[in-house]
Amino acid sequence: MEKNTHKLVILVGSVREGRFGPVVSSWVAEQAIAHGGFEAEVVDLAVVDLPLALPAAPPKFAGADYPRPAGMAGLTEALEGADAFLIVTPEYNHSYPASLKAAIDWHFTQWTARPVAFVSYGGAAGGRHAVLHLENVLTELHAVTIRDGLAFPNYFTAWTDGRPDDPQAAGYAKTMLDQLSWWADALKHARAAEPYPA
């Protein structure tokens, strides 16, 4: 049976100088395309206007009138059109970057009843602390977080020529993408059948 194709937004979470995120996101996008269930778009937060100061009214209540910066329009459009998300994050001091928190906080309904998978990288923990914090935040926004993600410990010695050295990495990616595709399909049909009671 032919797979349904879902719009997948891959967020590059780090904006730090010399970051490794674009290498990871490029490989992840390659895996998503090879999977066959997704139309993948990589959105790099390093090129998005992400001020930390927020308007007084939260986006949950302001809706379409929420005053986002003009430089955020592309990000907002990508999030609104997505059936699923995949966040690529490093770990900074046992958590995720401020850039990701800003991107999440400037939005609300865009995450609702949509699945989110995670690919993390870092030192010994491989970014898992960052993912645990993201799971908590995105659950609050009524997103559905995917259990099976990818974590790359000690990424600085575990990648060669833009690819992970672990021969099982592509298999782990397929499992994650299979689950993400299943949830994207299920939630898309559920949203179409009845509005989510947020």
Automatic annotation (TrEMBL):
Pfam families: FMN_red. GO terms for molecular function: FMN binding; oxidoreductase activity. InterPro entries: Flavoprotein-like_sf, FMN_Rdtase-like_dom, NAD(P)H-dep_reductase. SUPFAM superfamilies: Flavoproteins. Residues 7-155 form the NADPH-dependent FMN reductase-like domain. Transmembrane segments: none annotated. One of its GO terms (cellular component) is cytosol. This is FMN reductase.
